Every structure is written in C-alpha cells, then in structure tokens.
Amino acid sequence: MPFSSTHNKHKLKFSAEEEFPDLSKHNNHMAKVLTPELYKRLRDKETPSGFTLDDVIQTGVDNPGHPFIMTVGCVAGDEESYEVFKDLFDPVIQDRHGGYKPTDKHRTDLNHENLK
Fold this sequence. Notes:
Blueprint: H1 6-11, H2 16-19, H3 29-33, H4 36-42, H5 53-62, H6 81-84, H7 86-96
C-alpha cells in the first residue's frame, strides 16, 4: 500500500528554509547530518511507494532524544529509501555503526567454532 504524501505536497508550497525543522536541541544522528542544504536537495524526492524525506526524519523531529543517549532519528519506510535518501542515510549509518561505509560488506561466518 503506497504511503499518502498529501501533507508533503502541501508543504512544498513553502520554501525549504521555512520548513527546515529546528534541530538545535536534538541529540540524534539525523540532526547531526541534516543541513538546510541537504534538506532542500532531498525534500521533493520520494520513493515509488510515496515515502518522503519528511517521513524519513519525522521520528527524529518528534523525539529529540536524551542528552546522554544518541538515537538514530530517522527511519527508512521501504527498501528504496536507502537509495533515494542515501545522502542522509549513508552518513547516519556510518556514524551509528562505527564507520561502516556504503562500500563495506557484512562478513558472514556460520562456523560456530569461530565464536568468541
């Protein structure tokens, strides 16, 4: 079922500067990465199912986090979110997972003898 992005279409009537959220008191990875320039560049994009940047960041806007606990602050609505919004997700994932880059590959080892 596609996401309903009617609210996002309405928001596009306003400039990116007017719609950019105040993240000054937020403690999450999204708030560290998202700049007004990045917001402006990504705000009119959406995935084939209708997931938008505002959908991606809404949880981080609504939940500023705790001063001592760094939260992620964004969510992927579907598989395509990672590609459409890669300029936001890649640095968030890299920051959250200790330098895990988009080019890195997860090593799978199912040999129980290699457990430490």
